[in-house]
Amino acid sequence: NVKPLTTLTNAIATKKDKKLGATITLNVNPSTEQRYLVMGENMRKNMAISINNVPLKNDPDNGSKTVSLPIDAEKPTTVTLTFNRNIDQIDLDHFALYTLNRQPFEQAVAAAKQHAPKQVVKNGSVTLTTRQNNSGYIMLTIPYEKGWQVDNKQVKIQNYRGFIGLKVPSASLKFTLSYHTPGIKAGWTVTSLGLIGLIALAFLEYWPRNGKHAVLVNWPARFRKMWQ
User: Fold this and answer.
1) Do the Cβ atoms of 164 and 158 come closer than 8 Å?
2) Side by side, which strands form the sheet with 148-150?
3) I need a labelling partner for 150 at 20 to 30 A (CA). Which of 52, 102, 190, 224 fits?
4) Where are the domains of the chain?
5) Cα 138 to Cα 175: distance, rounded to the nearest angstrom
C-alpha cells in the first residue's frame, strides 16, 4: 500500500489508500560483511521497524539511529518498515545501508597489536613495558575507578567508556600501575588521632580520681621512691 519508489534515502513514502495500513519490506542479500542500517529521527517517530520479524526497540533519545544487521552468508536479512497509525506519508530521512570496510579496520587493529605494550600482572599491579618510540595513550580492560597510580605517583586516569586509560609516561619505557584505595591514608591518620585522644581522655579521667600513687602501685620500688 505504498506508492512506487525509485530510491529510499531521503525519499517520501506515501500510502496509496489512506484508510489501510502500509509497510515497506527490504530484503538485504546474504553477506559475510558487517552492515549497518542508518535511519533519521523522522523514521523513528513515524514507523515501526523490525529485522527478521524481530521488532526494533525505539529508544527514547532523539536523533538518528544506527542498527547493526546480523551477519548471514546464506540467508537474506528482512527489514520491515510499518507505518504508524494515522500516518499517511513518511520522510525516509538519512535512511541508508552501509557496509564496514574491514581492510582499514584490520590494518588499524594489526598496528595497535604491534605497538601494544607488554604487560605482567602480579600482586594486584600491572607492569607495562612500551617501545622506545611509543607515545599517546594506553587503554586497559580494567574497570575505571579512582585510586590508580603510576610508579606510586598520582596521575590523571582517563575514563574510556568504563575502562581506564592513561598517557604513556615519556620518561620511562617501563612503569607499574597499582591501585591505592582513595582516602585510606587520611583514614588511618584520623583513626590514629582518635585512638590517641581516647587514651588521653581515659588517662585524664583516671588520674584525678585515683591519684598518682594508684598509677605507680605496680611500678618497681625504686621508681615509686622517685615519685613519693
Assistant:
1) yes
2) 118-122, 125-129, 174-179, 148-150, 153-154
3) 190
4) 12-100, 104-179, 190-227
5) 12
pLDDT string in tens for the chain (228-residue length): 889 888 888 888 899 988 888 998 989 999 888 899 888 887 878 888 899 999 887 665 556 678 888 888 899 999 998 988 888 888 888 888 888 888 888 888 888 787 777 878 887 788 888 876 666 777 787 888 888 888 888 778 888 878 888 887 766 678 888 887 766 565 666 666 667 766 766 666 665 555 554 454 555 555 445 545
- Phi/psi of residue 195, nearest 5 degrees: -65, -40
Rg of the chain over all Cα atoms, to the nearest angstrom:
35
Q: DSSP 3-state assignment of 184? A: helix
- Partnered with residue 194 across adjacent β-strands are none
Q: Which residues pair with 137 in a beta bridge?
A: 167
C-alpha cell at 105: 579496520
Q: Where are the beta strands (DSSP E) in the chain?
A: 12-14, 23-28, 35-39, 47-51, 54-55, 65-68, 77-83, 89-91, 96-99, 118-122, 125-129, 137-143, 148-150, 153-154, 158-160, 163-167, 174-179
81 and 23 in contact (C-beta within 8 Å)? yes
The Cα–Cα gap between 151 and 166 comes to 13
